[in-house]
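quick one before i forget lol
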Amino acid sequence: MGPIELAVLILGLGVAGLAKGISGMGLPLIATPILAGVFGARMAVTVVTIPIFAANSLLLTQGFRRRGLLRGVVPFIVASMVGTAIGTVLLARIDQRLFAILITAMVAVFLFGGDRLLGNDATAMRARILGPFVCFVGGVLQGTTSIASPLVGSYFHTQRMPPGDFVFVLAAIFELNSIVQFVGYSLQGLYTPDVFALGLVAVVPTLVALALGIYLRGRLDVVWFRRFIVALVIVSVANLLWRTFGA
């Protein structure tokens, strides 16, 4: 890797870490295409799991006092982990074009009609059924591409959670998914010494920028936070479609 590629890599991971710190999502969305351009898609998906795990660990530590929230999302977490396990087996085998269309459609439904679809009661039957299903599909996405935030983030966006709660719940789901990814990819022999070394290098700019993002999140009001989430989800979907159909 030359100095230009290294500089692009560090800058890209910095932007990814900043988005992750502010919103709890966006790290693999930004980092994976950059890594894929240098190392190829399969290696990029594997490498990015290491900074993802480190970033979510920091977010969970920073928001540990919110751990009581996890009791209400256990079915979501279990469904997401099952989906991730399936996704690791399907890595590089799933029809990405069909998946991209389905994810785009589901995200659009949540962004433009999620309140009507789920209703105002998060404990209602339709919300309790739809939520785990969304997280299951998001888990499959994370297992195959490391990118689950467009779908999972858009769902929890409709719940109108406070910014700190939103970030903590997403970090918990993505962290446990990462553990499943580690096991699945290890069984496939994807974690070579080069992958580990690159992943550890990627952790440094990611965490530095993540800390800055956490600082900035504390100074955003709820309205601007929700606008940032919507913008990031829209960019996520546009990026997914471009990578699938335009590349």
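fyi Residues 114-125 have pLDDT under 50 and may be disordered.
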